[in-house]
Specification:
Helices cover about 50% and strands about 10% of the residues. It has about 290 residues and is of the alpha/beta class. The chain has a domain of about 140 residues: Rossmann fold (3-Layer(aba) Sandwich). Strands 3-1-2-4-5 form a five-stranded mixed beta sheet, with helices on both faces.
Length: about 290
């Protein structure tokens, strides 16, 4: 006789998962012997079937990763080759792209139009110049924003504050053309918001002024259709650029402190002031 642990090991080796021994009662009928059928082993596929299964299995994720790696390598190598072309290397080599694996021999031998040949090197040089443009210091300025009659901005210089006499003169100038004298101060903008290098300081500063003014108009529920820019600051030229995207026209006036001691400066300022007053009256008479 062997113990139950050993018997269980033998039964497990024969394929019987669970068995518990029992006592035989006196005069009891013997337990019928059960023949356990072994589970059929899975048939191993033939070598030809295994090869066919491997051929039918798609390998798209691997191919996609390979193509992505090749495209990233091309993008990394392209700026380097174009930079070598600027330093005196082969321009045609910098312009011509690497042939892709999917391109056939016929497409490689296709003729390139003369216009594309002529514009290719120039476009490559322009792209390299744009990519190689170093980041420079941003424009630095401060402007004070006020509102005239809930319709126009009054943009004052923040670096060169207007004196009390200049404030009085500015109010008299606005009154002389029929505009409200006192502009309600709203807020001030100090640019840049973060002291970081800029790739295009002019465009970034212009966009910053646009966003700042649009936010103030939305916050105070105003519909602004004009502006008076006082002084000749670094940001003043951004508002007079014909390429700007402001929704309101700008009228420029000299700094009031420069007009206090010069009669000639006042005479030269008068046409500018009249143009601003005419635009203000035009906006009042136009329908909403």
């Amino acid at each position: 006789m062997i113990g139950d642990p050993q018997r269980l090991q033998y039964l497990e080796a024969m394929g019987i998962a669970s068995w518990t021994s029992r006592y035989r009662f006196v005069n009891a009928k013997p337990t019928a012997q059960v023949e356990w059928e072994a589970a059929p082993e899975p048939e191993e596929p033939a070598p030809g079937q295994r090869l066919q299964a491997l051929l039918e299995t798609p390998a798209r994720p691997v191919e996609r990763n390979r193509v992505a790696d090749e495209s990233s390598a091309q993008e990394t190598a392209a700026p380097l080759s174009r930079a070598r072309a600027l330093l005196g290397g082969d321009t045609a080599r910098a312009v011509s792209p690497r042939p892709s694996p999917d391109r056939t021999a016929g497409s490689d031998a296709a003729a390139v139009s003369p216009a594309s040949k002529a514009s290719g090197p120039e476009q490559a040089l322009a792209d390299v110049a744009k990519e190689a443009a170093p980041a420079v210091d941003p424009l630095r300025f401060t402007l004070s924003l006020s509102v005239i009659g809930e319709r126009w901005w009054l943009m004052l210089p923040g670096e060169r504050l207007i004196s009390a006499a200049g404030q009085t003169l500015l109010g008299q100038m606005l009154k002389s053309v029929g505009m409200p004298a006192g502009g309600a101060p709203l807020s001030s903008l100090t640019w840049p918001l973060m002291d970081m290098p800029a790739s295009d300081p002019i465009d970034e500063a212009r966009e910053g002024i646009q966003v700042f003014c649009a936010g103030q108009a939305r916050r105070h529920g105003m519909n602004v259709d004009g502006a008076i820019v006082v002084g000749d600051e670094v940001w003043s030229s951004l508002l007079s650029d014909p390429a700007n995207e402001f929704e309101w026209a700008c009228h420029h006036l000299p700094h009031p402190d420069d007009l206090l001691a010069s009669a000639n400066a006042k005479r030269e300022c008068w046409p500018l002031l009249q143009a601003a007053g005419s635009a203000w009256q035009q906006g009042l008479s136009s329908p909403e």
